[in-house]
Amino acid sequence: MTRGLYIGRFQPYHDGHQQVVEDIVTEVDELIIAIGSADRSHTQRDPFTAGERIMMITKSVADIDDDVVTYVVPIEDINRNSVWVSHLESMSPRFEVAYSNNPLVIQLFEESGTTVRQSPMFDRDVLKGSKIRKKMAADDGWRSLLPQPVVDTIEEIDGIERIQRVGDTDNVPLE
Ligand code: NAD
Fold first, then answer.
1. Which domain holds residue 40?
2. Residue 35 C-alpha to ligand 1 middle, in angstroms?
């Protein structure tokens, strides 16, 4: 029995993340999707709350593989990288293998003795959180890059308006 953990900020959860999950479920019996920076929201870099990301991911993975139990858990950041893996483990079901391509995350897991697997990057020129958030701010061409339940969630919470507002400034030119 192997339980794997896939960690990300998922701002937002996009088609590249979904393809990674589709690959991971062929290798594990159970999957934990850990939502990092769970305490962050309502900024240009981190527009969505942990709860909103839980909705996006839970609905997107629901039909991938009925045989693989999937847990979605929020993990707040802590201001000390050296103990982050212990912090994450204290909030998550146990796991034997972690999945990430993030160099800092890989370094911290390896130092703690956790097996880390990397996945191929899918269409990284387009499927990249920062690029997708820019498209969302312009409300142009973002829907086709996200699983449909993510689009539905963003529409339900008026996410485009939020991204546009938090990117605005109240600096009005002085007369
Ligand atoms: P992310 O949402 O950017 O990406 C999640 C994973 O998906 C990464 O492994 C990334 O490489 C991969 N990915 C992205 N686009 C892809 C694509 N097109 N195809 C295939 N894979 C793709 O999240 P992240 O930045 O890796 O998340 C790490 C989280 O861990 C953050 O929330 C970070 O704050 C947290 N963290 C916290 C601490 C701390 O609190 N001290 C320390 C380390 C990490």
1. 3-167
2. 9
* Residue whose CA is at the smallest distance from ligand 1 atom 16: 16
The pLDDT tens digits of the residues spanning 15-74 come to 999 999 999 999 999 999 999 999 999 999 999 999 999 999 999 999 899 999 999 999
CA 112/CA 106 separation, integer angstroms: 10
Residue 127 alpha carbon, nearest atom of ligand 1: 18
Q: Is residue 138 part of a domain?
A: yes
* CATH at residue 31: 3.40.50.620
In a domain, 50, yes or no: yes
The pLDDT assigned to 142 comes to 98
Pocket test for ligand 1, best of 6, 17, 119, 145 (most atoms within 8 A of CB): 17
Does residue 172 sit within a domain?
no
Cα-to-centroid distance, 173 and ligand 1 (Å)? 38
Quote the pTM value: 0.96
Name the DSSP letter for residue 107.
H
Question: Domain count of the chain?
Answer: 1
Torsion-angle region of 37 (φ positive above 0: left; ψ -120 to 50: alpha; else: beta): left
Residues across the chain: 175
